[in-house]
Amino acid sequence: MGFRYDIRLSGSGGQGLILMGIVLAEAIGLYEGKFVAQTQSYGPEARGGSSKAEVVVSDEEIDYPKALKLDLLLCMNQKSCDDFYMDLKPDGLLVVDSTFVTQTPIAKAFEIPFTRIAREKLGKAMAANIVALGAISKLTSIVSSRSLEKALLTRVPKGSEQLNRQALKDGMTAARKALKNAGSQTGNNWVDEEA
Amino acid sequence: MGFRYDIRLSGSGGQGLILMGIVLAEAIGLYEGKFVAQTQSYGPEARGGSSKAEVVVSDEEIDYPKALKLDLLLCMNQKSCDDFYMDLKPDGLLVVDSTFVTQTPIAKAFEIPFTRIAREKLGKAMAANIVALGAISKLTSIVSSRSLEKALLTRVPKGSEQLNRQALKDGMTAARKALKNAGSQTGNNWVDEEA
Question: What is d(CA A161, CA A183) in angstroms, rounded to the nearest whole number?
Answer without folding.
Answer: 33
